[in-house]
Amino acid sequence: MTVAPLETDDELLIRIQSGDEQAFVDLYRRRQAALYRFALHMSGSMPVAEDVTQEVFLALLREECGYDPERGTLSGYLFGIARKLVLRHLERGRGDVALEVEGDDSALPELAVIDDPMLDLTRREGIEALRRAVQALPRRYREVVVLCDLEEVDYADAAVALGCPIGTVRSRLHRARGLLLDKLNQERNPRQAMALKPVRCVS
């Protein structure tokens, strides 16, 4: 029995624009989780992430949908819409708060089943430390880490989403990884980080 190949995002979009509801459902199921995680990491708010994700897909239903396949993939375009919507929420003061997602396993990396509860606790603590470190990054570095490292978006799609050249994506990611490593080291060794912190003399 021959299995039919999966339709591409572009093929699904063509069907969506012709009024095919099932195509919309298929594309939503394919891309919703990654867009939600991106919005969650960028905003620090589950309600904002939910709103942004819904608004991204509603944008596809509008006649003025500006997607151009010659400029990049649909995935990169969707991340770009999500980014603009998150920034709009942040400007309104509704996001960029401490990330609280204890009850939302969809925002966590997949974990293998572990019999040792202490090992499981250690790994989960590591994930929480990573999440806090990512959330503490400046926005321009946070977004490139979330896209390229957490969501594994390629540089070309990240460039489309961020509206910048690929070279800028590479340089920001290099800087972001350095900042992220510093923040993780500070969290693991807070006393050492305080000892190395320069002290300003007051005359």
UniProtKB/TrEMBL annotation:
Gene3D superfamilies named among the record's database cross-references: 1.10.1740.10, Winged helix-like DNA-binding domain superfamily/Winged helix DNA-binding domain
Name of the featured protein: RNA polymerase, sigma-24 subunit, ECF subfamily
Keywords linked to the UniProt accession: DNA-binding, Sigma factor, Transcription, Transcription regulation
Single annotated GO MF: DNA binding
SUPFAM superfamilies for the chain: Sigma2 domain of RNA polymerase sigma factors, Sigma3 and sigma4 domains of RNA polymerase sigma factors
Pfam families, sorted: Sigma70_r2, Sigma70_r4_2
RNA polymerase sigma factor 70 region 4 type domain location: 128-177
The family this protein is said to belong to: Belongs to the sigma-70 factor family. ECF subfamily.
Lineage, uppermost ranks: Bacteria, Pseudomonadati, Acidobacteriota, Terriglobia, Bryobacterales
Organism: Solibacter usitatus (strain Ellin6076)
GO biological process, one term: DNA-templated transcription initiation
Signal sequence annotation: none
Stretches assigned to the RNA polymerase sigma-70 region domain: 27-93
